[in-house]
């Protein structure tokens, strides 16, 4: 069906879905901020779990759809390419917070812990690649381990929030997570209704993800572009646009922990794409079907995550060009990774 559509129709479907992603992603930010205050869970946890899952939903639909179509490289690169793209979004958001380095102001132990969990999760695909190609019901054992590590990370994050054994030093520039005062109209809306609205937005995001996957696959076949290139630099970036929109929106609202937590939590959630994709891929282990170009993006994501964690620990007040030094490094590494992808694996 999709292959029978004209190029103009495919591009139109891709762009229309991108617009849905942008609009729905922007609206989820405000709702997530209010739910963080209503539930008492805090911006870091709600950003890392609820907002991260919502804005990643369309991405997981892309990866699963590609796996069902037998396109392992597209499914894999969309998953890990989005993690690299979303990490660089924090550097872009740093430009919008002109007062001081974003990583300094948004100091939160929960975000730091989630970053370490993400690092562990990103090493598991390499463990799968270097182990024998053994599958259970056509699924590699590492795919069962990823959600277990993710769940353990959520439990650890809650413990870090409720009974922290370490605390970041507060400075005059630290922006703490304080509940916002709701106006009369907002107070009349029940928490259940807020969750319902959030669910509707997730449905829009999921539907747009399916359209993006199908239209991007058809365009890749028509123009002879590699699935790795399409996955890492087209579908991954487009499906990650909610993170860019929500991160900048959260920074402008002053919800700094929500901004950082949304990116790190979204990246952590994105590793579940690999489990879902491996289950949907019926030709054996997804990790062994992926190519060097796909694993290159995991290496890039690992490097960028390490730099981000370092920035959260160092908490530089002001770097060159009025943004943090880690932000400059993230932008440079991502630009270099794009150049390698384009010229080494076209």
Describe, in plain words, how this protein is organized in 3D.
By secondary structure, this protein is mainly alpha-helical. It has one domain: Up-down Bundle (A middle domain of Talin 1), CATH 1.20.1420. The protein is built from 15 helices and no strands. α3 packs parallel to α10 and α6 runs antiparallel to α12 (272-280). The longest helix is centred in the N-terminal third of the chain and has 33 residues, at 7-39. The two termini are 26 Å apart.
Brief rundown of the structure:
This protein is an all-alpha fold and 346 residues long.
Query: Biggest β-sheet: count, sense, barrel?
Result: none
Distance between the termini: 26 Å
How many β-strands, per DSSP?
A: 0
Mean pLDDT: 81
Structural class: mainly alpha
Approximate strand percentage: under 5%
Radius of gyration: 19 Å
General shape: globular
Low-confidence blocks of residues:
none
Order of helices and strands: HHHHHHHHHHHHHHH
Give the second-level CATH assignment, the architecture.
Up-down Bundle
**What is the H level of CATH, i.e. the homologous superfamily?**
NCX, central ion-binding region
Could you say what the CATH topology is called? A middle domain of Talin 1
Number of domains: 1
